[in-house]
């Protein structure tokens, strides 16, 4: 009896957690199709808000800026983070623990402090604020996340496999492409997705290092909220959610495909 009660409590607790997480998202999606401008009442189904959203040139420019910044910073942080993870795993050097500590500091430091420091840094170098400063800033705070995710893939890796491959005549490039890269590829993809998500929805750092011609989508949404929550914002959030869900589905599909391939 006690076990049944415990199971019911566990199911109820899990259900409440998921409802707490996903009901607000569901409400945003539903009210993006609301014919009324007010989010308090349902006045019928409509797609007019999506039409108005796509007709808004400023929103489309902000979305394009966010996409360019997120993709660019993801590529940079994925390459540097992957190389850093490989280097920290394969090589031992004096000060390695200090490097680890510095990487963790970037993760735990308040984002507003990083935003201010980057603002001062670029101002001292007389770098014009815009897409370039945003890409560099986003890549800076995304690199440690990618590095930690990729480095975790090396846990339990038997380095003797590399030695065996080299004994059989494989050079270092062949060992990397045939052994190391397939091993860490899921970590690279996971780190890249994390970097993309962090970059795409960042607000604080964007606020400090963006220029007048480089408004990003989160900043645009934040400015629109000052005039009240309209269904147009709900439509914009729904499109962002769909975009993120597609990325998650694609990444999971790639991961399952690789797992099936390894099992076969």
TrEMBL record:
Its main location: membrane. It is found in: Cell membrane. It is a multi-pass membrane protein. PANTHER family: PUTRESCINE TRANSPORT SYSTEM PERMEASE PROTEIN POTI (PTHR43848). The chain crosses the membrane at residues 12-33, 67-89, 101-123, 129-154, 175-200, 233-254. One of its GO terms (biological process) is transmembrane transport. InterPro entries: Bact_Polyamine_Transport, MetI-like, MetI-like_sf. GO terms for cellular component: plasma membrane. Residues 63-251 form the ABC transmembrane type-1 domain. Belongs to the binding-protein-dependent transport system permease family. CysTW subfamily. Its EC number is 2.1.3.3. It comes from Clostridium carboxidivorans P7. Coiled coil: none annotated. One of its GO terms (molecular function) is ornithine carbamoyltransferase activity. It holds the Pfam family BPD_transp_1. This is Ornithine carbamoyltransferase. Keywords: Cell membrane, Membrane, Transferase, Transmembrane, Transmembrane helix, Transport. It is an enzyme of class 2 (transferase).
């Amino acid at each position: 009896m006690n076990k049944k009660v415990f199971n019911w409590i566990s199911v109820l607790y899990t259900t409440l957690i998921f409802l707490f997480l996903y009901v607000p998202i569901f409400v945003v999606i539903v009210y993006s199709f609301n014919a009324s401008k007010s989010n308090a009442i349902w006045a019928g189904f409509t797609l007019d808000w999506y039409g108005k959203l796509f007709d808004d040139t400023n929103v489309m420019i902000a979305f394009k800026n966010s996409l360019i910044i997120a993709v660019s910073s993801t590529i940079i942080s994925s390459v540097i983070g992957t190389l850093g993870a490989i280097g920290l795993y394969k090589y031992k050097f004096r000060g390695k623990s200090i490097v680890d500590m510095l990487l963790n500091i970037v993760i735990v430091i308040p984002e507003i402090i990083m935003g201010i420091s980057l603002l001062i840094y670029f101002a001292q170098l007389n770098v014009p604020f815009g897409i370039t400063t945003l890409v560099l800033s986003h890549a800076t705070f995304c690199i440690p996340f990618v590095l930690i995710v990729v480095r975790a893939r090396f846990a339990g890796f038997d380095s003797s496999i590399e030695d065996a491959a080299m004994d059989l005549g494989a050079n270092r490039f062949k060992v990397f492409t045939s052994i190391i890269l397939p091993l860490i590829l899921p970590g690279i993809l996971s780190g890249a997705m994390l970097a993309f998500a962090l970059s795409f929805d960042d607000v604080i750092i964007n606020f400090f290092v963006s220029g007048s011609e480089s408004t990003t989508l989160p900043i645009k949404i934040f400015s629109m909220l000052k005039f009240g929550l309209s269904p147009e914002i709900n439509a914009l959030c729904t499109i962002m959610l769909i975009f993120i869900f597609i990325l998650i589905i694609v990444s999971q599909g790639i991961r399952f495909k690789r797992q099936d391939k390894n099992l076969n």
